[in-house]
Each structure stands twice: as C-alpha cells, then as structure tokens.
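Hi team,

As requested, here is the filled-out complex form for the NDP run. I kept the field names the same as last time so the parser does not choke. Let me know if anything looks off before we queue the next batch.

— J.
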Amino acid sequence: MSSLDLLSVVKQRNPGETEFLQAVEEVYHSVTKVLERHPKYAKFAILEQLVEPERVISFRVPWVNDQGEVHVNRGIRVQMNSALGPFKGGLRFHPSVNYSILKFLAFEQVFKNSLTGLPLGGGKGGSDFDPKGKSEMEVMRFCQSFMLELARHIGHRVDIPAGDIGVGGREIGFLFGTFKKITNEFSGVLTGKGVDWGGSLIRAEATGYGLIYFASCMLAEKGNSMAGKKCLISGSGNVAQYAMEKILHEGGTPITTSDSSGYIYDPEGIDKDKLKFIMDLKAKRRGRINEYVETYPSATFTPRDPDIDYNPLWDHKADCAFPCATQNEINVRDAQNIVNNGIHLVAEGANMPCEPEAVQLFLENGTPYAPGKASNAGGVATSGLEMIQNFSGSKWTSEEVDVKLKSIMENIHKTCIDASTSYGDAGNYVLGANVAGFVRVAESMIAQGVI
Ligand code: NDP
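And here is what came back:
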C-alpha cells in the first residue's frame, strides 16, 4: 500500500481523529526509508497492522458526587500493540479525552516503549472525567467505578496502566485499592504506586529527570552542558516539576512554568525554594499557578488568552525549551519565536506538544529537537523497572534506580543518533526515534506471525 493509500485508509477508518492521524503521519514519513530498505516490512503489512489497535475497550463510568447526584463519564482503554510485551501506558483523566487523543498516545507509546529496550507493549487509557474542583471523595468514587470495569481487561501480565495528566499518586492509590479488592490479589498491575506498597523509588521523578538526562546528552553532542542554561518550561505538573528539579541540579535555571490558566515568567529564576512552593501548591493544595506571584512579586503572571494564536511563554530569550504540559502547545509561530530567540535545544517532556509545522521549522533551522517518544521515555522505563522489582520481590535504592534510568536515557539517545546516521540524516532525532522504535516492533511482529 502506498503512503497516500495508507494515510487515506487511516483517515477513513478514524474520521475526525486529527491527533491520531497527526501521530501516524509523522511516523509514516520517517519509516518510508526503512520500508524501502527492508521490503519484508511491507510484505507483512507491518505499518497497516500498527495503525490498527489490537483492542479498544470503551465503558460507562457512573459515579455519585458529594450532593448525591449521579454523573456519567466514558472510560476507554486502547490496547495498541503487544508484540514486545504486555500493554503498557498511562491513564489520563481530562475533559478533552477522546478516542483520537488516546489512540495517538497509545500509538506513540508503542515506539517509546520499544526505544527503552524493555519488554513493554503499548497502550493508553483514561476518561473525560475532570478531577479539577472535585473533592477527594468524589475522585475516589470515580476511580472505584472506573476500575470496576477496567479490572476485567488488565493484569500484571496483560496490561499495566500508570499515571498521566490528571492521574497521579492519589488516583493510582484509589485504582490499585479497587483492583486489589475485586481480584483479591496484590500484584504489580499498576505502576506509579506508593513506595510503601510496591512502588519504585524515583518513579515520580523519572519522566522529568529522564528528560533532562536526554537533553544533557543532546548538549554533550555539541560539546556543551546544562550548566548556566536558562530554560523555558511549560506545565507545572509531575513532568515539569521534576524537570525543573533536575535542571537546577545540573546547574541550569528554569525561568517559566505554567498551568492551563496562564504562565509565570520569573527573570530571577525558579530556585529550589520556589520550586518547593510550586510542588506544594500543585501536589498538596491543588492551587492555580498565579498564586506564585503573590509570594514572589518579582515574577509576572500572564493569563491564557484564547484569542491570540501563539503562547507568549515561548517568546522569552533562553537557551533551552521544554514543553511539559500537553499536546499541540507549540505552533509554528511559537516555534519561530523559539528560533528567533536563539534557543538551541527543544526537548519534549509532554507527548506531541509541537505541531508538525513547528517540528519542520526546528529541523529546517538545525535546532536540535527531541520528540517525546525519545526524551520523555524515562517515565515508562522506570515503570518497567517497577514491574521488574514487583516480579522479583526486590526493592532497589533511589541511587540504583536513578543509575539505571540515566543509562536507559543515554542508550535511547545513542540509539536515535545511530539510527539517524544509518538513514543518512545524523542528529535528526525524529527520524532516529521513529526508525529505531519501529524496527524492534516490526521484527517482533514478524517473528510472532500474522496474528
Ligand atoms: P499533570 O497532570 O501532572 O500536569 C499537567 C500540566 O499540564 C499541568 O500544569 C496542567 O495544567 C497542564 N495542562 C494540561 N492540559 C493542559 C492544556 N490543555 N492546556 C494548558 N495546560 C495544560 O500531568 P503530567 O505532568 O504527568 O503530564 C504532562 C505531559 O507529559 C502530558 O503530555 C503527558 O502525556 C506527558 N507524559 C507524562 C508522563 C508521566 O510519567 N507522568 C510520562 C511521559 C509523558 P492544569 O493543572 O491547569 O490542568
């Protein structure tokens, strides 16, 4: 099947699913050269198989609010590909969640998990439930209802979900408790668990830390380091917080952070104390980011303006940019601002935060750019390490996990460089990540037969 045929089939089969099509197109363009070099992948219709989930489960999630009123949300689990291992990927609770977003995330997850070198298939799930503004008891009741159905479809050798936007340690706790009650089994069915009940040390930190380990490899490639670098960060959730922590540790300075209400610019830098304030604000008090300027008046808060077609967060002078909030948060105009401001590294903490035209602009301008499937793989890699600890009944120290995480990120970086070099565009991380991620999955699918 030609490229146009494949993309039009995907479009026809998945009408209106723009994010999913965007993710498929990007991978397709990268792997065309692989298909030319290895005709067996076309013969086994690997790409055609990859764009079709092995299974999609959709279910009703009714729950009762504190006033006794019944609400109904939709739960979804996309089990995308299990060639490399059990399905693995996070759960997202956000009002924007739909089939397109979860299928794009699950598709990306297949390649990301492949890049880690661990035995992990790819999946993703979640609900259009919005945890924002809900009481702890409402979130618990929702999680219990969600798991009542999901429990039938997951298992520590079948499908192992984790967190994502709106699903942190608290939600994983409620989900795990419900799974245990239903199945009468204490198993590693979810990752991101509390460290006292089967969780791995460094899992919470892993995506943010891994992102900065990867960025440090990119800088080292140019004979540079994170020391002294000013960094733009979007988001103020799990990934953003620990990316900032590691930037500080490596001698860099974060100068922006955001949430969906707007962004903070702190020209004096977000130091350790200010970061602790953000962590308390977000994780404990579940407050809004504008509270930062009440405590640190040297910073400015710019509210989100839905009427402008760019995000001023990306229009500050800095050295590195780390989008860590959500998909499609950097458009071509933001990318132009990033390039104009002399930023010489963009690495994605979020999944697909850069629109395709923005990515193209970075590539054309020679701005080193890392796609999330490579640079944010530290989270799922450490989930893999949590699974290994659960299976073997062992518990590694923070240092042991951190060393393994760093080594995995360095390996992914090397894998991307080697694959991009082998396909004639050294240093193109998009090409490298897609090609290397694809080949491992493709080989495993062929070995397991047309099934
Ligand atoms: P969190 O829920 O902890 O934080 C998300 C942050 O992004 C919040 O600051 C949130 O603001 C902001 N945000 C979310 N949606 C939007 C939006 N539509 N517009 C503007 N801001 C938004 O999630 P994570 O930090 O876990 O995840 C962030 C990104 O990283 C996602 O793309 C996720 O898929 C990706 N990722 C996460 C991994 C993990 O281990 N957690 C692993 C790999 C990738 P607000 O609070 O106002 O909603």
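Two things worth flagging: The chain has a mean pLDDT of 97. The radius of gyration is 21 Å.

Thanks,
J.
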